[in-house]
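Sequence design from tokenized structure. All designs in this work follow the same two-part layout: the structure record, then the generated sequence. An example of the structure record is given first.
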């Protein structure tokens, strides 16, 4: 009886063992593939072929990463003022009119941010605006974007503490060669990393801030793609936003941006409305040294004609 049973089951044992082994191997292979593929695709999609095996701090979710290259085909129009700042400091005594115009005092800046908080505005990142324009992701009421051109060190000293206090996000467009050179007027890479870790987007304003008009492909690649790669190398996360030097662009620049992985680009022309087919020419609202709080409030509603009168 026992012998019979043994003889009956014996042939099945190797089969069961083989099945079990196959199952274990399949599970191990699957786990291995997932471990390898998940982070790779996560950051690989976002950087146009550049594959990192481990997700860096601040890496965006797959949904956000995918959002950059397309959309759901719906043309949207969204009103969200993108404020444009340069210096956040008291201009030096000998400052010319140009520098004065580009400088908002820390006191005025704090008052403007307090106004946003008190008036129900919610600062969002340009990545949020990108998702909203391409995929219809909902935005909070009264969305506003804070952008800072050139990457001056006074952003770190005067603007960042206020933004942190209020829990506001922002975008800083850096001229990467100025950071490379250790120019004291500009952020250091260490400061840029600290800002990025605190939720501030550090994005491209080229390597050297040259005019991009009438340039060949090699020049554009070096200045634009080169600066994006520099940011990724220093911050450990890809950059997809671009700001044209002096707000100037031509067709060659516009055509090259998507190839370089640029999802959104900002200009200096005024306006608060954005459309899905204009993501590389986002209008902004210039905040100047002489912008008082009343004007600031009117600019947010794009009623500057009324404010000026
Ligand atoms: Zn600039």
């Amino acid at each position: 009886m026992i012998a019979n049973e043994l003889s009956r089951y014996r042939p099945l044992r190797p089969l069961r063992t083989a099945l079990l082994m196959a199952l274990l191997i399949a599970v191990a292979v699957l786990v291995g593939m997932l471990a390898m593929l998940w982070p790779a695709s996560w950051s690989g999609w976002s950087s146009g072929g550049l594959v990192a095996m481990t997700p860096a701090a601040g890496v965006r979710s797959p949904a956000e990463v995918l959002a950059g290259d397309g959309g759901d085909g719906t043309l949207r129009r969204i009103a969200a003022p993108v404020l444009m700042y340069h210096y956040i400091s008291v201009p030096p005594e000998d400052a010319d009119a140009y520098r004065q115009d580009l400088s908002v005092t820390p006191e005025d800046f704090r008052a403007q941010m307090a106004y946003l908080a008190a008036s129900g505005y919610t600062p969002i990142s340009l990545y949020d605006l990108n998702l909203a324009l391409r995929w219809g992701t909902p935005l909070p009421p009264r969305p506003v974007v804070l952008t800072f051109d050139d990457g001056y060190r006074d952003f770190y000293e005067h603007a960042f503490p206020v933004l942190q206090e209020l829990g506001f996000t922002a975008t800083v467009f850096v001229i990467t060669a100025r950071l490379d050179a250790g120019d004291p007027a500009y952020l250091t890479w260490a400061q840029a990393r600290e800002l990025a870790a605190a939720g501030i987007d550090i994005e491209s304003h080229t390597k050297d801030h040259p005019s991009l008009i009438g340039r060949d492909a090699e020049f554009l690649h070096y200045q634009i793609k080169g600066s994006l790669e520099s940011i990724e190398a220093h911050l450990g996360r890809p950059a997809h936003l671009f700001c044209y030097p002096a707000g100037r662009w031509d067709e060659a620049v516009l055509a090259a941006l998507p190839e370089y992985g640029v999802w959104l680009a900002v200009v200096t022309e005024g306006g608060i409305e954005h459309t899905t087919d204009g993501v590389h020419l986002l209008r902004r609202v210039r905040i100047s040294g002489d912008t008082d709080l009343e004007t600031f409030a009117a600019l947010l509603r794009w009623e500057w004609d009324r404010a000026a009168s």
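The domain at 75-308 is CATH 3.20.20.370 (TIM Barrel). We note this feature because it recurs in several other targets discussed in the main text.
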